[in-house]
Amino acid sequence: MTAVSISGLTKTFTKGNVTALQGIDLEIQPGEFVSLIGPSGCGKSTLLRVIGDLTPPTEGTVEVNGKPAPRARRDHDYGMVFQDSVLFDWRTVARNVGLPLELLGWDRAKRKERVDEMLRLVELESFGDHNPWQLSGGMQMRVAIARALSFEPAILLMDEPFGALDEMTRERLNIELLEIWRRMQSTVVFVTHSISEAVFLSTRVVVMSPRPGRVAGVVDVDLPQPRTTDTREEPRFFELVTAVRELLRGVGAEEHGSVTAETAL
Amino acid sequence: MSVVLQPTPRGTVVKEIRTRAANWIPAIVVFFAAIALWQLAIDAFNIQKFLLPKPAAIASAFWTQRSTLWSAGWLTLKEALGGFAIGSAAGIAFALVLARFGRIAAALMPIAIAANAIPIIAFSPIFNAWFDPLSPAPRMATAAVLCFFPVFVNTLRGLHSVRPSQIELMRSYAAGELEIFRRVRVPTALPFLFAALKVATVLAMIGAIVSDYFGTFGSLGITIKNSVSLFDFETAWAAILTASILGVAMYVAVSLVERTVLQWDPTRQERGTA
């Protein structure tokens, strides 16, 4: 069974009559790590939101684990992480992580056990009693990831989660995220602006073109697992980065200057 | 945004009291300097006591008349507290109901804002006709109506001030409207609510005292009015002092509740003591 199956997807916003996505076909297998990359306005965030049933498609179908997307959302198949960590100030770090479990009706003891486990996973076990705003941006993002994974969703949807972080924090979180992905064996759909981040993290990179948003090409990333800091220095890594960049150049992304390749190339 | 690298224990109590006291020192110095200046200015410029009595004279009237003032104060405070409780509760209840039903809110909001501009205090004599003027009801009604609007408008605004990303996150967990309301909208509205409640304490006291002027036997308002007509300005000022103390006490009480309830609020932390 495919994790995500999209066919003939078109999304039009009635406000302004904008066609955000047109004729998207995409299949994602369980356990894949797929990045969506493209210039601003290519609809990559909209695509993610359609997959997550936060906005309905205008045409076409989206199936997740063989179910229509709205059904998958009701079944708690999605863990979402946004660019802004979206932590609730009135909840401690631990209670933020436990929020989805509360909504699922887990009892207190079971919840605490899982929350402790998740905080250990993101190496924040001593910060459970802190308020979110007492943590740095990178730590807040780790809390958001722990929260998204706490109820073991079938699929993790991430919308530029590391976009607001500095380069060093970003690279460290990239490695941590891959480790978590391997351990949880989840499926990840990851929206990013960064070519090197997309290549480093993914098993496949989906390059999108703007106005209307379409799939311009797909790059299979055959870099060996597990990936480490050394991966970024391998010749194959540079080849793949170049391949993605060529595709983006084809869709006019370079002129827009909205996609960054911030590796030392 | 503070970056905490190590889990820090909560600041020791002694240290906290010391910093807090240090924060208050400038305010206390200014307060007593102003009183001293007031006392000296009256002699220096030969100010008549019907314009402004000396602070020492007011203090002595406050002391000698303490039993009358406190019983008058207690009467007025009960009116203010009753009005505050009724008006705030109604404001919160209306806001909660209207936030749940957006269309009704859209229809009523302009009316509420327009009604807020009405000088409600002008209705005070009317309330004396509506309710038994010998009971505290008409004064409570004035205070309640005064408190209602800021609490209602602010709470409703707070309930609508939720970040869209927070709603999306809750929806991704398949949380229903009621769940979102309870876990996101209400906590978001709390800082707005407390800001309004603090304003309401002041309004409740104003409402009670001004209504007293229309003849509440043994109240603070009537004490002020009668003392002025008897040229007993020291007592009038002592009554004003009593009203001020009670008003500040109500404000401080709400602030203390706010402090406990909103411990999580980062904007409150940055402001420090308040």
Written overview of the protein:
The complex is a heterodimer of chains A (about 260) and B (about 270). Chain A is α/β, with parallel strands linked by helices and about 260 residues long. Chain A has a domain at about 85-150. Helices cover about 35% and strands about 25% of the residues of chain A. Chain A has a 6-stranded mixed β-sheet, sandwiched between helices. The longest helix of chain A is centred in the middle third of the chain and has 18 residues, at about 165-185. Chain B has about 270 residues and is an all-alpha fold. Chain B has 2 domains: about 10-45; about 55-270, MetI-like fold, CATH 1.10.3720. Chain B is about 75% helix and about 0% strand. Chain B is built from 11 helices and no strands. In chain B, α9 packs antiparallel against α10. The longest helix of chain B has about 35 residues, at about 175-210. At the A-B interface, β6 and α4 of A face α7 and α8 of B.
Give keywords.
heterodimer, A: 265 residues, alpha/beta, six-stranded mixed beta sheet, four-stranded antiparallel beta sheet, 10 strands, 36% helix, B: 274 residues, mainly alpha, MetI-like fold, 2 domains, 77% helix, 0% strand, globular
